[in-house]
Amino acid sequence: MKIIEIEGGRQLSGTIRISGAKNATVALIPAAILTDEEATICNVPEITDTDALCDILKILNVKVNRSTESLVINTKDMKNVSIEEEYSKKLRASYYFMGALLGKYKKVEMYFPGGCSIGARPIDLHLKGFEALGATITNEKNKYIVEAKELKGANIYLDFASVGATINIMLAAVRAKGKTIIDNAAKEPEIVNVATFLNNMGAKIQGAGTSTIKIEGVDHLHKCFHEVIPDRIEAGTYIIIGALCGNPLKIDNVIPEHVDALISKLEELGINMEVGLDYVTVLNSPEKLKATNIKTAVFPGFATDLQQPFTVLLTQAEGRSKVTETIFENRFMHIPYLKALGADITIKNQTATIDGPTKLKGTEVVATDLRAGAAMVAAGLKAEGTTTITNAEHILRGYEQIIEKLTAVGAKIRIKEI
Ligand code: UD1
Q1: Is the pLDDT of residue 285 over 80?
Q2: pLDDT digit string (tens) for 319-371?
Q3: How far apart are the first and last CA of the chain?
Q4: How confident is the model at residue 68, as a pLDDT?
């Protein structure tokens, strides 16, 4: 097991550069198999989720050439074989191979995906979308066989604007015959990044980034070169860390519009920031932060992935703040550990009530999932004394070089294996 140890209470100053977006990368890698030639993706983050997807590519006999930050994926000798559970369960995004393989071969055999235990996370909307395109689904225990004689474009309405379902349906529909319309599609920037990638390969997708996506199927997808967008969740996490202990802390390589909701909330708290074209600098935090409320929502609302780190900041605000989680049923697993660090928080249904400010004092905590782990890092940097975070593997799934990036701005943080 990996453990992160932080000596907190230090001020952080300097620049942190944001890496390529995890949630875009994890869809772009499976999407790349749709080409019959070679796809080059650059600005790929070195995180363990990238490794897990490259392992699946290798099982499919896809040639993967990885250099610093770029991936060349060649599908010339590719074979459509079953993706076994030991691979699918390593991450949520393994499910994007369902849409991509179905699109390319009209058949896919794979096991249920893994990922953070932040809720039930069913995949019914993905499967309904595949069925609408003409696929039949056989499900035995955890194994899914999805196949179609032919995929035919369809009108698909998503009951919920799911990121995963929108991308997965798009991956299958680019190789279907005729036109597919996805209504109530998710609008996250990662979806736009994936649609641009597919269009660069010759797909015909319009409307990504709005709630109606139109896809005209094509027979062939060609060679292409593509760049991953900066990670808005990594950026948001470091901006929050800046608000907790920055003096000043510049977060570079950010698309500020992707973190608009966070920036508005930080302004409500009273954080002083400079927002540039591609950076956000947290100048300083006033003595007293104002309490505020957040409610998570689909993009462009307040990102559920930033809810957990933001809760840490609210423990430092004067008065009562409320955090309502609307996307995942089980995304408060960081709260007991924040309380162990000294926070005053109660949870009722899907709302956490935080009374502050409270001093945080280092202790032993657990990274129960990826963003809960990020919250523990933020809290550990603020807390006096030593914070020890166990199960730190979760954090490495989504934050490239987190130890190096924080050390470079003055944090005392290290990782070890026990
Ligand atoms: C993606 C992100 C995750 C982020 C989330 C919401 C990736 C790899 N992960 O997760 O970091 O927190 O978007 O922004 O990109 N749902 C169903 N049935 C389905 C699909 C989803 O009920 O078929 C529900 C989920 O259980 C959840 C909600 O819809 O309650 C949102 O899920 P979704 O948008 O699909 O999130 P993910 O793609 O899993």
Answers
A1: no
A2: 999 999 999 999 999 999 999 999 999 999 999 999 999 999 999 999 999 99
A3: 5
A4: 82
pLDDT of 286 reads 83
Ligand 1 atom nearest residue 303's Cα: 14
Question: From the CA of 164, how far away is ligand 1's center (Å)?
Answer: 6
pLDDT at 32: 98
Helices within 33-141 (DSSP H only): 48-59, 85-88, 96-105, 124-132
165 lines ligand 1 (CB under 6 A): yes
Dihedral over alpha carbons 193, 199, 204, 209 (to 10 degrees): 10
The number of the ligand 1 atom at minimal distance from the alpha carbon of 188 is 14
Atom nearest to 119 CA in ligand 1: 26
What residues are annotated to the active site?
116
Ligand 1, atom 2: nearest CA belongs to which residue? 23
Checking if the pLDDT of 69 tops 90, the result is no
Mean pLDDT of 287-302: 96
Tell me the domain boundaries of the chain: 2-19+230-417, 22-227
Q: Does the C-beta of 119 come closer than 6 Å to ligand 1? A: yes
* Superfamily in which the 22-227 domain is placed by CATH: Enolpyruvate transferase domain (3.65.10.10)
- For residue 121, the Cα-to-chain-centroid distance in whole angstroms is 14
Q: What is the mean pLDDT of residues 282-290?
A: 89
Return the CATH number of 2-19+230-417, one of 3.65.10.10, 3.60.15.10, 3.40.50.20, 3.30.930.10.
3.65.10.10
Ligand 1: centre distance to CA 345 (Å): 26
CB-ligand 1 contact for 125 (6 Å cutoff): yes
Cβ 282 vs Cβ 47: under 8 Å: no
The angle at the Cα of 343, spanning 342 to 346, to the nearest 5 degrees, equals 135
